[in-house]
Design brief:
globular, 5-stranded antiparallel beta sheet, mainly beta, 10-stranded antiparallel beta sheet, Beta-galactosidase, Chain A, domain 5, 3 helices, 28 strands
């Protein structure tokens, strides 16, 4: 496998009060990663694997007592894409979804269905926030849990040697009122199709399918008006103005080439469009929105993970050979006055609708910051079967752009991201593709006044995620 850090846009290619016992040793230093999650598969937690997922509960040790920690279990299974398309066995543009089987997040609200294994199996995920870790306990178990059932998860920060925290998992006792979520609601996700219920009203082979869906975290709001139409981001971190700074999160073949875009993915092309939701769910720790279908890439998939201060976007490109691709954030006029920076241009320029000359490069991070708040964007790509060529940053700040804008408004305010100006081979396994391309983008939503050093720090946190060591609890 070939792995590269690349421009942040590549992630969107067509594509984180109980029984008191004696205090244990405190952590050498606290974890300073408030936005970052810890995700473990069932395989990493053999004590709990193949048991009931509803009886696993989380705690931290405060130094004098147990405190509940919200955990979330997300079920996954290998699912045939024909099933996701309501048991469709035919082909779209020559690609047959029923020939594709992938490990996906399951959902009874979509045609994907629930995990056939209702237990916490090896490929399911358990997630909690790193900031919820506490001190190390010397023993005992919280009230309402089964004695001897505990597992200790040591959480470490590879960027800060000595920084550590501990989360403890237990089985709850019979009759206990403890719940895995511990009453938390870190993120709100209101998924709303204007047509009604998904299974009875969603048009899998025609469109558009208008939405009024809103994700609300502690430091941001993110709105969707259709499956691929991400059209509103408001930063609500302390001190931020909270205005909508996003016109569109765009996907094109090349500047001004409108034959394929995030809008064509949602609307009829040559009398047909195909697309579906793999899953849409919200839990106590994160929300997940996973979609599939992008014109002649009916198996192209994008999955959003929404945390309260951070958003991860993972895109799996599965399409016939294409000549190029670009992905970028096109900001709205309300972003005027913000500073745009990137790894290749750390000094930055002002977003104002007046063209700027930036140094070319291949940036692993971007940043927009101003009174409106800050978004630090980090991206990387993984490929197999080919070596990417023609990869570079894209930037356009012009209120009267020469290129057609294709979607959204007619302006290009701080449009920035990634341009892959080189051939991408067949990545669709349904048509014999043997190459693969997966892009990941991570967005941190923060207060005004950020610097290039802050963006670099966020990049490092993505590259070096929180580490874990699992052992029996004392």
């Amino acid at each position: 496998m070939r792995t590269r850090l690349v421009g942040t846009g590549l992630a969107v290619l067509v594509g984180v009060a109980g029984l008191a016992v004696s205090a244990g040793p405190a952590a050498a230093a606290p974890l300073a990663r408030p936005a970052d999650p810890v995700v473990l598969t069932g395989a990493a937690l053999p004590t709990f694997v193949n048991g009931s997922k509803t009886t696993i509960v989380g705690f931290r040790w405060t130094g004098s007592a147990w405190a509940k920690v919200p955990i979330q279990i997300d079920e996954r299974a290998v699912v045939n894409f024909g099933k996701i398309y309501k048991n469709y066995l035919g082909s779209f543009y020559g690609s047959t979804p029923s020939l594709v089987n992938q490990l996906v997040y399951t959902s009874g609200n979509t045609w994907t269905g629930n995990d056939p294994n209702p237990s916490f199996d090896a490929d399911d995920e358990l997630v909690f926030m790193g900031r919820d870790a506490g001190a190390q306990s010397v023993g005992g178990n919280p009230t309402g849990t089964v004695a001897g059932s505990g597992v200790e998860i040591k959480v470490t920060d590879p960027l800060a040697p000595g920084a550590q925290g501990f989360v403890y998992l237990f089985r709850k006792a019979a009759g206990s009122t403890l719940t895995p979520g511990a009453g938390a609601h870190y993120v709100k996700y209101a998924f709303k199709l204007l047509s009604g219920a998904y299974k009875t009203t969603y048009q899998l082979t025609s469109g558009p399918n208008p939405e009024n869906s809103l994700v609300t975290g502690a430091t941001y709001r993110h709105h969707f008006s259709d499956r691929w139409a991400s059209d509103n981001i408001e930063i609500t971190a302390p001190g931020a103005s909270g205005v909508d700074i996003l016109d569109r999160h765009k996907a094109l073949f090349a500047p001004g080439v409108c034959g394929r875009s995030e809008d064509t993915f949602d609307m009829p092309i040559a009398g047909s469009v195909e697309g579906a939701f793999v899953t849409t769910k919200v839990g106590p720790v994160r929300a997940i929105r996973s979609i599939v279908g992008a014109n002649s890439g009916p198996n192209t998939q994008r999955t959003y993970f929404f945390y309260d201060r951070r958003e991860d976007i993972v895109t799996n490109l599965r399409v016939h050979q294409i000549p190029s691709i670009m992905d970028f954030m096109d900001y709205s006029p309300a972003a005027s006055g913000m500073t745009y920076r990137s790894e290749a241009n750390p000094t930055g320029v002002t977003i104002d609708g007046n063209p700027d000359a930036l140094a070319p490069g291949l940036s692993s991070w971007e940043q927009v910051t101003g009174a409106q708040g800050t978004i630090d964007l980090v991206g990387y790509v993984q490929t197999t079967g080919f070596t990417p060529t023609g990869v570079g940053d894209y930037f356009n700040d012009d209120s009267t752009p020469a290129d057609a804008q294709c979607t959204g408004d007619a302006f290009a305010y701080g449009s920035s991201g990634f341009y892959f100006n080189g051939t991408i081979p067949n990545t669709d396994p349904a048509t014999g593709g043997t190459a693969s391309l997966t892009g990941t983008r991570v967005l941190y939503f923060e207060s005004p006044g950020a610097t290039a050093a802050d963006a670099t720090a966020r990049r490092n946190q993505v590259v070096f995620p929180l580490g874990t060591q699992v052992a029996p609890a004392p």
